[in-house]
Specification:
Strand order of the largest sheet: 4-3-2-1-7-6-5
Order of helices and strands: HEEEEEEEHH
Distance between the termini: 59 Å
Oligomer: single chain
Structural class: alpha+beta
Largest sheet: 7 strands, antiparallel
Number of helices: 3
Shape: elongated
């Protein structure tokens, strides 16, 4: 059996969130969510039998508009294409917004390190680069 990327990734948090629907009435719908080191997976049912939506961390720009009211913590996930997705969770539950933000920062740091190492490998692989860089140094 082939495992999906979400199953291979480490699960950071699992539980319920409410997502505001995109339609005109904008009802809050309870969703089962699984946050991994690479994505936020959103399912319509608690058994995760429904086909879930996967929101990759690379597609998230930021977690924004955190507001706490009496019963709920409200927050918005802004994607790289500037789409806003509204969520809320109960105030007693440990804050999803903080866990998602930390996962996003961790993902961005891992990506930056990977990009840096790739750049270093490419520079060291091309002969003469070191000499050219040294020749330009003052």
């Amino acid at each position: 059996m082939k495992m999906s990327a979400a199953e291979i990734s480490q699960v950071l948090k699992e539980g319920e969130l409410e997502k505001r629907s995109d339609n005109l009435l904008q009802f809050w719908k309870r969703k089962t969510c699984v946050l991994t080191t690479d994505s936020l997976n959103i399912y319509a049912d608690t058994q995760k039998r429904s086909k879930g939506k996967e929101l990759k961390l690379q597609a998230i720009k930021k977690v924004d508009c955190v507001e706490r009211t009496g019963k709920f913590v409200y927050f918005t996930i802004v994607t790289t294409d500037n789409k806003e997705i509204d969520f809320r969770c109960s105030g007693e539950d440990s804050c999803w917004n903080a866990v998602i933000t930390m996962a996003l920062i961790d993902y961005q740091n891992r990506k930056a390190i990977q990009d840096f190492k790739t750049r270093q490998d490419n520079e060291s692989a091309s002969p003469g680069q070191q000499e050219r860089r040294l020749a330009r140094a003052p």
